[in-house]
Amino acid sequence: MKRGRKTNEANNSSLGETTEKESKRHKVTEKKAIVVQSPDWANLLQDVILQVFQYLPLLDRAHASQVCRSWNQVFHMPDLWRCFEFELNQPATSNLRTTHPELIKQIIKRHSNHLQYVSFKSHFISALTVVFVNSKSLSSLKIDDTPVDDPSLKVLVANNSDTLKLLKMSSCPHVSPAGILCVADQCHGLRELALNYHLLSDELLLALSSEKHVRLEHLRIDVVSENPGQTQFHTIQKSSWDAFIKHSPKVNLVMYFFLYEEEFDPFFRYEIPVTHLYFGRSVSKDVLGRVGMTCPRLVELVVCANGLRPLDEELICIAERCKYLSAVGLGECEVSCSAFVEFVKMCGGRLSQLSIMEEVLIPDQKYNLEQIHWEVSKHLGRVWFPDMMPTW
Q: How many CB atoms lie within 10 A of CB 351?
């Protein structure tokens, strides 16, 4: 019995040692497996790293470039700097996120000749001028709230006249009509242009209409009152608009109006080739009546509000004369139910977008608010409901 017991104890001891060895071996194997499954970030293909960098914000991208030498090489690849947004603001006066000045200097030093699509928001004209001086292939440029001036635009034209196709300028008070005319005169490949109305001139439209200039595809004009009651708006001659449209018959002319009623006098006095028209402030019956008479190319009309008088006759006039109208937003404009139904009936199924607040539709003897839903849906060929005012 004792001998058998010793044998069993020896077997159990041997089995225990075997189990312990196997357990250690499994742990080592697991560790090896973990090491094998861990990716070697430094040896990722450059194309993969490039795709990752393209989705990172600039600051994260800069931090990632410090991981290893190969990541830093990708950080400076030209393909990564085709498109870039500069933001350089005064910390004391701006809450906007800002690009660190040292990082901007590094980018300009190494990649200014690679930049093609640039958005610039800066209070420092020197930084913008450096980009213009060193860049040779800019095709898209957006400048917002920056003291760019005529001399800096001349530098831009001197280096990028053959490549610039898109120029959008907003809140650039130091640029004159002569400065923007210089761009139009030299950049014959320009296809899209956005600027404030004070930069628009007859000379600019004629320059964009010359034989050596390509057909413009998109022209956006912001008509903004910076000093209510004191701003004097000039008038563009009908002959200039006619020459422009003859040269670029398919152009989208977009106009945003942020004016007070007394400032509309120079506008819509004769035919204007606007296609997309937006009124950011309340507009009178008189102005909207003139829109119907002078905007035959109109495709989209958005009006936030009108006065206290319904726009019945004005809407009918717009439906009669604007044969391409396909999108309408009337916001808080008061309209009788009968006139609204008649407007939809005249425009028919081409109205792909139609919105108005239910609260401003005025019931009459022919239609109430319940009936108008069915009538409008019938003429549109789809289910339609008016918008509702938020309750909060």
A: 21
The helix (H) or strand (E) run that includes residue 132 is: helix 125-134
Residue 375, phi then psi, degrees to nearest 5: -65, -45
The DSSP annotation for 5-40 comes to HHHHHHHHHHHHHHHHHHHHHHHHHHHHHHHHHS--
Instruction: Name the amino acid, one letter, at 128.
Output: L
- Cβ–Cβ under 8 Å, residues 350 and 323: no
3-class secondary structure, 387: strand
Expressed in percent and rounded to 5, the helix, strand and coil fractions of the chain are 45, 15, 40
Euclidean distance between CA atoms 216 and 193, whole angstroms: 8
Q: Identify the H or E element spanning 120.
A: strand 117-122
pLDDT averages per 10-residue partition of the chain, 392 residues: 51 54 54 49 69 74 78 74 57 46 62 59 62 77 83 89 90 89 93 95 96 96 80 90 97 95 90 96 92 97 87 95 96 94 93 94 91 93 87 58
> What global pTM score does this model have?
0.74
- Between strands 276-279 and 166-170, the pairing is unpaired
Secondary structure (3-state) at 207: helix
Helix or strand (DSSP H, E) at 345 = helix 337-347
Task: Tell me the β-bridge partners of 354.
Answer: 328
Token pair recorded at residue 277: 């028209």
Handedness of CA 142, 146, 150, 152 (dihedral sign): negative
The alpha carbons of the chain give a radius of gyration, in whole angstroms, of 32
CA dist 184 and 177 (Å) reads: 11
The structure tokens 């080739």 sit at 273
Q: Give CA–CA dist 107/73, Å, rounded.
A: 14
Alpha-carbon span 181 to 98, nearest angstrom? 31
The SS3 of residue 276 is strand
Q: Measure CA 298 to chain center.
A: 21
H-run or E-run covering 240: helix 238-247
